[in-house]
Amino acid sequence: MKKKVYFIFLSLFITASVFAQKTYIQCGKLIDGISNTEQKGVTIIVEGNIITDIKQGYLSGDASDKMIDLKGKTVMPGLIDCHVHLEDQFSKNTLLEGFTLTDADIAYRAAVNAKTTLMAGFTTVRDLGGSGVNISLRKAVQHGLVDGPRILTAGRAISASGGHMDNSVGFRDDAFNHKMGPDDGVADGRDELIKAVRLQIKRGSDVIKIASTGGVLDLSENSSGAEFTIDEIKAVVETAKDYGLRVACHAHGAEGIRRAILGGVTSIEHGTFMNDEDMKLAVQYGTYLVPTIIAGKSVADSAKIPGFFPAVIARKAIEVGTRMQQTFGRAYKAGVKIAFGTDAGVYAHGKNYLEFGYMVEAGMPPMEAIKSATTSAADLLGISEKTGSISKGKMADIIAIDGDPLENIKDMKNVTFVMKEGKIYNQ
Fold first, then answer.
1. Alpha-carbon gap, residue 279 to 260, rounded angstroms
2. Is the pTM of this model over 0.85?
3. Residue range 185-199: average pLDDT?
4. How far is Cα 392 from Cα 74, in angstroms, rounded to an integer?
5. Residue of 41, 16, 45 lying closest to 29 (CA atoms)
6. How far apart, in whole angstroms, are the C-alpha atoms of residue 167 and residue 159?
């Protein structure tokens, strides 16, 4: 009997201890991702990996609780970048690396890029296409094998023959040991596109990415021509929807953007030459624009360096890169929904914060820019019930920065505290 009482007492003691352990985060300023104004003198209470309460004033809990002093900082939700490529780091050698790097080489690089991204304050990313290593990286992060943001990935992106994701473009026909097809993310017509989507879902993709126009960083001549019919895009969207997945669409040219919106995609990536008709359609259909201004500026700058790009890419980089910020400003003013995305990998990972400054330069208020990377980004990704704001019941994805980005948006680079799902990665 005594032994039974002892074990009951021990069980109650352990249970009480577990539930008693809380983390109290004292915030000098708080941007919660929901309100249009920041709060001052607030305490966030975290239990395990969940935010359980937000209280006015500075609370510290009991002796068994942990207290984190961020009274001199601005606290906000973990940031979300809706367009990254964790496998990549573009350079003048990128085309050659497509023939020299192994999957293992790519995986090691991707792991480094993932940690760099997390330490920059981005606790969630949407990886929009790579070799498929990105799916393995997502699993490695989930299992705690490497440090990185929460990853939603497209696996391999899908385009038409000769399109942006057709890696054989610009090479002679026998340069590759097989003809590109749905298995490689290259598909034409409804049947091939349905198969390509199902293959990506089979491999574990969380989202489907297609390209409805050409691109900049490939050897094709045209970056803006439309490459899928509306019917083909609908086939992709309908197939993805059957599996509960959303569709992101790389698109530069106005006609390709129009077709993508009418075809039902969830987001337009880049949107460089989006015209007034496209913008009206985006508002009507509720389609997001993910502007990636920093990528445009980066490739335009690199194009000025003699020999950095092949001539065809340099020309397209100037044409596209110099237009993105202007188009974003017009789209924002037209009421198009905006979600934060940078195309990280086209520029250096970890400098995602530069996008905030470019958005503000184009006319978006600082608070709206921050919301584009929190609540709006979470809405686009379909994860609003889990993250995107600091509120009760959400994952404890919390960061802090030195300074106040509402006064100086460039302070977004000063990330000094990162918590993802209740785990602290730096302090």
1. 12
2. yes
3. 97
4. 19
5. 41
6. 10
